[in-house]
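Tokens as discussed.
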């Protein structure tokens, strides 16, 4: 006679095999999509075309100071210059984040079968992220704005996170870094007020990141079912803390000084800006709805997400 324990074990094995099968099917579809819709930015984009006078480098509504008293005092030329520096700062942030993501993906697949579609897609995503980082670096170099590294504190926090992160924590952080920027870029690439080169960069990134988001969402959903309880709780707390770090790092205060603004006053007005808060929460809403649905936004973690300003 089969005992309850044995029956549970059989059911658990069946469920695990089903999850693995689903994981492989998702990866196969993403690999097929990658084969059809991948881009070489060096060939796809006209890097030598001059920037067009009067065009923005980021949609004005997404520039951090938009709608503030300081914004009202700025000339149109200074506003466009700020958009140029903020675009460079976001590209710099993207490179930092993608370097972390690539290391987390390598850790994730380190002890998995290299012949599986899941691992092959992870390697494909790493390849995509390498191209994206080079594309962002070239965009910064092409413009007149500098590279904006994150603070030393954030670099060290990134090192710590890469060391202690669990698999579900890694995929939660992946989605945080990808989905807020993705929302902004989806508004940017069709916007004819924006420089053609910036629109081209964001178009490539949006198309390829859609696959990365699908991969991370599907894996995180599986992980929040199969991971030990301690790992799930650890993911809730670390993701909330990473949200706090990310929201602070999203705008580099040096951009204000470099366009002739008072840095302290600018930072204070951005923090007080209801428009900016709405932009960040709207950009994160699709992600926070998903995380809430799969049980990440609970307890201390939810309070940390609220304190980050990304969750209403």
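Sequence:
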């Amino acid at each position: 006679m089969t005992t309850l324990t044995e029956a549970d074990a059989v059911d658990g094995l069946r469920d695990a095999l089903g999850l693995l099968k689903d994981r492989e099917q998702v990866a196969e579809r993403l690999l097929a999509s990658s084969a059809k819709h991948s881009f070489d930015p060096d060939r796809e984009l006209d890097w030598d075309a001059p920037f067009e006078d009067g065009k923005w480098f980021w949609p004005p509504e997404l520039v951090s100071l938009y709608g503030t008293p300081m914004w009202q005092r700025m000339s149109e030329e200074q506003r466009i210059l700020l958009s140029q520096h903020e675009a460079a700062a976001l590209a710099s942030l993207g490179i930092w984040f993608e370097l972390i993501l690539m290391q987390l993906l390598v850790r994730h697949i380190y002890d998995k079968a290299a012949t599986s579609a899941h691992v092959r897609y992870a390697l494909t995503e790493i390849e995509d992220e390498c191209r994206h980082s080079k594309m962002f670096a070239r965009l910064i170099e092409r413009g007149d704005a500098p590279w904006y590294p994150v603070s030393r504190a954030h670099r060290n926090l990134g090192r710590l996170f890469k060391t202690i992160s669990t698999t579900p924590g890694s995929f939660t952080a992946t989605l945080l870094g990808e989905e807020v920027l993705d929302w902004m870029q989806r508004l940017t690439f069709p916007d004819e007020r924006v420089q053609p080169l910036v629109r081209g960069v964001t178009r490539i990134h949006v198309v390829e990141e859609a696959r990365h988001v699908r991969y991370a969402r599907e894996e995180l959903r599986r992980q929040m079912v199969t991971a030990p309880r301690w790992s799930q709780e650890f993911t809730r707390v670390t993701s909330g803390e990473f949200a706090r770090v990310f929201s602070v790092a999203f705008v580099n205060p040096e951009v204000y000084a470099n366009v002739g603004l008072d840095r302290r006053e600018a930072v204070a007005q951005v923090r007080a800006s209801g428009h900016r808060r709405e932009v960040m929460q709207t950009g994160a809403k699709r992600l926070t709805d998903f995380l809430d649905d799969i049980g990440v936004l609970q307890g201390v973690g939810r309070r940390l997400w609220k304190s980050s300003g990304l969750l209403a």
